[in-house]
Specification:
about 210 residues; alpha+beta; Glutaredoxin; about 25% strand; metal-binding; transmembrane helix; membrane
Length: about 210
């Protein structure tokens, strides 16, 4: 019976993930076909027809401060949700974003930020997050929080995550592989889907920031 219950939970998690990804794919396709041009032509970002308002939230930053919605205002912010024990997607994505950051002119860096939000707060302590993100770039912001805060925020952004059943004392977390783009008003402006091309993303951010 325990095995059946575990299998049921795992199947339910996968159904949630599949449904969320299908919905996101449909939204992405709809935006590609139906969305009118808004702002500069971009190679890597699918912009929403209208920016989406986000709910207030409060997460714990790795430096001891708080990450709130107001912190996403005043600049363009690329936000990626993952976890430090991720075997492939997260380190690959942050490595790509590291290359993007290196390519940005100093003027653009004043108007752009990269945030990494962990969906594994049980293991990703502030110290662990600081070490992990600092390995890629010390300018990147890292944060996490309660499942209540994380679930509310990821749902608002059209993202999803689900933890697998523990095995041999550990577990994996299934999560969306897309990054979201937050505009200087603190609204979700669009989405970036892998694979991530550092040169093209950098060019898009320069165009969005209006810098050279």
């Amino acid at each position: 019976m325990a095995r059946l219950r575990n299998a049921g939970r795992i199947s339910a998690n996968w159904l949630i993930i599949i449904a969320a990804f299908a919905a996101a794919a449909g939204l992405w396709l709809g935006m590609r076909v139906l969305a009118p041009a808004r702002g500069p032509a971009l190679a890597t970002v699918v912009m929403y027809p209208a920016p989406r308002e986000l709910p207030a939230f409060e997460l714990d930053r790795s430096d001891g401060g708080k990450l709130r919605l107001d912190d996403w205002k005043g600049r363009w912010t690329i936000v990626f949700f993952g976890y430090t024990n991720c075997p492939d997607v997260c380190p690959t994505t942050l490595s790509d974003f590291k290359q993007v950051w290196k390519r940005l002119p100093a003027a653009t860096k004043q108007r752009v930020r990269f945030d990494f939000v962990s969906v594994d707060p049980q293991r990703d302590t502030p110290a662990q997050l600081a070490r992990y993100v600092g390995f890629f770039d010390p300018d990147f912001v890292a944060a996490s929080g309660s499942d209540e805060q994380l679930t509310r925020l990821t749902h608002a952004l059209g993202l999803v995550y689900a933890r697998g059943e523990p095995r041999d004392g550990t577990y994996e977390v299934d999560h969306s592989a897309s990054a979201v783009l937050i505009d200087p008003e603190g609204h979700q402006a669009g989405v970036m889907r892998p694979p991530f091309d550092a040169a093209k993303i950098a060019a898009d951010l320069v165009a969005l920031a209006g810098t050279r």
